[in-house]
Write a structure and sequence with these properties.
The chain is an alpha/beta fold and 269 residues long. The protein has a domain of 166 residues: 3-Layer(aba) Sandwich (Rossmann fold). It has a seven-stranded mixed beta sheet, with helices on both faces. α8 runs parallel beside α9. The longest helix is centred in the first third of the chain and has 25 residues.
């Protein structure tokens, strides 16, 4: 059990963290009626996307509670428009992305270093999950580390590889090795300076890059998810028409659980 000193330290730490955030919170507030009006519209858009539900449930979901990857919203939208039912996906790092991919592609193979977390997920039949210890850290591990080499276990090539777990920099050459010639690498948090070596390595291996910057489910900060391919034109040709989200309160489905207006209600502007 926690003693009084531990409780006091915890309260003091939370209080100090709150005080540090107050100047930023004050800076973020709207400063005029016009700013307030548009800020409320922005909050409505975030509620439409399920951002608030993600905060409440502490799991990345859309407005209806369906799982989402913890990638930036622009990346999620783009991937939703290019993935095909016959694609094979490998993931470094499990979570909402596992369930989201499984609903869109033929098969998902995932590896995670946390057995308890893996067992907490209700996985569909088209997911193969593996637990492998990572003896390195968030950025690097030995090339023969069980976690890094998990992608080689099935001796197959993948159409898509998501790098969003442990030993990210060390997983890049493994992803390259297991990818089809026209395959896609998804690398999250690509804007962080510590991940620059991955960007450079993929560029030197002939990969083109598209960056998707913005917010992500439940996060109040900007970030970037990047996709890489040696055949990026193929993925661009795959892209389906973008979803129409609405341009007015009348088109916003804020009174119902639907997440987008019907095609008949979409205006051309």
């Amino acid at each position: 059990m926690l003693d009084a000193r531990q409780v006091a330290r915890g309260v003091a730490w939370k209080g100090a963290a709150l005080l540090r955030r107050l100047p930023y919170a004050a800076w973020s507030l709207p400063r005029s009626p016009r700013e307030l009006s548009n800020a409320l519209r922005l909050l409505g858009a975030y509620r439409q996307r399920g951002w608030f539900r993600t905060v409440s449930t502490r799991a990345p979901v859309d407005r209806e509670g369906h799982p989402l990857p913890l990638l930036t919203y622009p990346a999620i939208d783009w991937l939703d428009g290019v993935l095909e039912p016959e694609d094979e996906v490998f993931e470094y790092g499990m979570g909402g992305s596992t369930l989201w991919f499984a609903a869109r592609v033929a098969h998902v193979t995932s590896v995670d270093h946390n057995r308890e977390y893996m067992l907490s997920l209700r996985l569909p039949a088209n997911v193969t999950a593996r637990v492998a210890p990572c003896r390195g850290g968030l950025l690097r591990a030995d090339a023969q580390d069980p976690y890094v080499c998990a992608i080689d276990a099935a001796d197959r090539k993948y159409d898509v590889v998501l790098v969003d777990g442990m030993a990210r920099l060390s997983c890049v050459p493994a992803a390259h090795r297991a990818l089809t010639p026209t395959g896609l690498v998804i690398f999250d948090n690509s804007d962080k300076p510590a991940n620059a070596p991955a960007r450079q390595e993929l560029a030197e291996s002939g990969y083109s890059r598209i960056d998707f910057c913005g917010t992500r489910p439940g996060s109040g900060f900007l970030g970037c998810t990047s996709v890489y391919s040696r055949a990026i034109d193929l993925w661009l040709r795959r892209a389906r028409a973008p979803r129409y989200w609405g341009r007015s309160i009348e088109e916003f489905p804020w009174r119902s659980t639907r997440t987008g207006p019907s095609p008949e209600s979409a205006s051309p502007s």
